[in-house]
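User: My collaborator and I are trying to settle a disagreement about how two of our proteins should look. Neither of us wants to argue from intuition anymore, so we agreed to look at predicted structures for both before our next call. Could you fold the first one, then the second, and keep them clearly separated?

Assistant: That sounds like a sensible way to settle it. I'll keep them separate. The first protein:
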Amino acid sequence: MAEELNRFFASVFTLEDLVHIPDAETEGVKKNIDPLRVTHGEIVRRIQKFRKNAASGPDGLSLRLLQDFASSFATPLEIIFNRSVHTGKIPSDWRIANVTPIFKKGTKGDPSNYRPVSLTSVPCKLLESETSIKDKIMTPYGEQTD
């Protein structure tokens, strides 16, 4: 069954066109914003607000552990998150995901009735949620919280 789901998910997977990315300045629109920065306080708040039943990723690091020791984890995560935002790179271990099929509806024997869900590491999920570029850009004048 796993092999059949893998074949189906691979057959419907689409690659993004990274060659023809639109240029943000083609319309003459320029907006200067301050560099994005993730703060210790934002990380602690996000860890505490994160949904309690978030699954652990391939690294096995649980959200419960992070929540119990949020202030201790926040400083190293702040360093990693800000370096990731600045360089555009994330730790290679965070690129690993476990793909789990979630049944939608219909016949359980039909692979098209499942959707793939990627389980990534909890710190990676936090980085994705904490550095919401849209939220930071939409903040008036690029103000940083904290």
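The second protein, kept apart from the first:
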Amino acid sequence: MGRTSLTSPKLKFIGLEMLKEHEYSEPSLLKSLLEEMHSGGVLRRPIAVDKNTNVILDGHSRFNCLKLLGCKIVPAYLFDYGMPEIIVRPYRRGERISKDDVITAGLTGKKLPPKSSKHLVRLNSGRLVHIASLGKEVSIPLENLKSLSNPTC
């Protein structure tokens, strides 16, 4: 995955059961997002996933909302988490987190507390941006994500 795809990731559709969470969702955020998605009927922002392990990097609440709404497939932007341009930082001061912590939690199922990690990407300019800001917003009807057949955007 070169720099071009890092800043313009391709949208992929992945079976929900293939994805691995590394942290729990924040209950209050999950509740409000679930209400928003249910009433709007669309997913606006795909999740971010490590292409080598299927560990979710960003979008645990969106993932869990899709699961609760009966969706079978999840729109995701895939990233090579091993790239040095992708950086993980803790959300809370005084805590520590590493890429190894994220992958281990995702692969073992021993999830970290909500909002344990924040994934940033260093652009060519040196500026850091949140991984969720990469890729385009979408408006995918939730009904299109409820079967394993090819969804239409």
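Some points you might bring to the call about the second protein. The chain has a mean pLDDT of 91. The CA atoms of residues 121 and 129 lie 5 Å apart.
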